[in-house]
Amino acid sequence: QGYDYRNVGISFGADYGCCIVELGKTRVLGQVSCELVPPKPNRAAEGVLFFNLELSPMAAPAFEPGRQSELLVKLNRLIERCLRNSKCIDTESLCVIAGEKVWQIRVDLHLLNHDGNIIDAASIAGIVALCHFRRPDVSVQGEEVTVYTPEERDPVPLSIHHMPICVSFAFFQEGTYLLVDPSEREERVMDGLLVIAMNKHREICTIQSSGGIMLLKEQVLRCSKITAVKVAEITELIQKALENDQKVRKEGGKFGFAESIPNQKITAFKMERAAVDTNNVEEQAEDIITKADPPSEVFTKPILHTPGTAQIGEGIENAWGDLEDSEREETVEEEGESDATAFECQKMEMEDTSIMNETEKDEPIVLSDSEEEEVVILEPQEAPKKTRTQTNLKQENTSKKTFNKKRKKKR
């Protein structure tokens, strides 16, 4: 029974409304943006909220780009139910001119790495990005709307009533075992999943069970109690992260993703400046020169294998043209010879010198496999080559005799 969450990490970008949430190895990037749009006809005095979660192939190879999978549709619905239908954001405060202009707040969530429990990480990233976001200040004079830049007036935070957070429970062996925050491997083997979205006031915003598992009333109540504890912990962490970010921004300190990367690593964007002592450089240089061994007199000369190339030291030579052996093997295979006959031919090549002594030098030795009617002629003057010709009956008789001699020798 695992009631513990993996480590939760929250880091903010340089702009307002940008954050990355890490849940173990699962990483979700949240980005909030806004624009002035006409309102929906049935909600003339309310702003518009839009949520969009994307699963890119960068997160896991199974995700396909531009394709709405069943999982993605399910996750998007859950996010909307958790963050929009729970009325956690005051949409009426987003109205500029009723029936004409309202703010549309768009929350984009990108899954950067998938290691299980996407919904929890996405719900945390969504609410954190909304809490961190600041919209431009607006003033209305008659029908004239003025949008101020951040330099002219400080941007305004959104009015957020409460912070709903999803907590996922995986069930194993028909509900016997319960696990909070399943990883990717655990999700593959689980029987069912229960997702509860709750805020720190213990108000359930949404609840969803999937996987076709029958749950008892006691199990659901037990899960809701665990959710209340986990949500309280995560809410406290979010508030601390937001306070810390605000404090750093006010003090004019360093913030953003680039600053959160440890500087002392080779892969970091920059290193701290190291002070170099330049007082006794000449003396130190002289000491090093006197102590050092004299230079060797032998210098390596470049080797010219072919015109237009140079090489120092013995490396690997260009093997572009050395494909004769492999080509020979390919021709043998194309001609339909079996591995056994090719092997016999190789043996015959090896014993070529012993046959040379017995037979006349000018006369080629003709060997034939009587089944396949193939002849391999081995010429002693040149490198042995395999050729193929059709045989006559007379040739067959003579070649059979030589082949029988050969077999006796082998035995």
TrEMBL record:
InterPro entries: ExoRNase_PH_dom1, ExoRNase_PH_dom2, ExoRNase_PH_dom2_sf, Exosome_comp_Rrp42_subfam, PNPase/RNase_PH_dom_sf, Ribosomal_Su5_D2-typ_SF, Rrp45
Region (Disordered): 351-411
Domain (Exoribonuclease phosphorolytic) ranges: 5-136, 162-226
Predominant location: cytoplasm
Localization of this protein: Cytoplasm; Nucleus, Nucleolus
Gene Ontology process terms (BP): exonucleolytic trimming to generate mature 3'-end of 5.8S rRNA from tricistronic rRNA transcript (SSU-rRNA, 5.8S rRNA, LSU-rRNA); nuclear mRNA surveillance; nuclear polyadenylation-dependent rRNA catabolic process; rRNA catabolic process; TRAMP-dependent tRNA surveillance pathway; U1 snRNA 3'-end processing; U4 snRNA 3'-end processing; U5 snRNA 3'-end processing
GO CC annotation, single: nuclear exosome (RNase complex)
Comp. bias regions, Basic residues: 402-411
CDD domains: RNase_PH_RRP45
GO terms, molecular function: mRNA 3'-UTR AU-rich region binding
The entry's keywords: Cytoplasm, Exosome, Nucleus, RNA-binding, rRNA processing
Domain of life per record: Eukaryota
Assigned protein family: Belongs to the RNase PH family.
Name this polypeptide is given: Exosome complex component RRP45
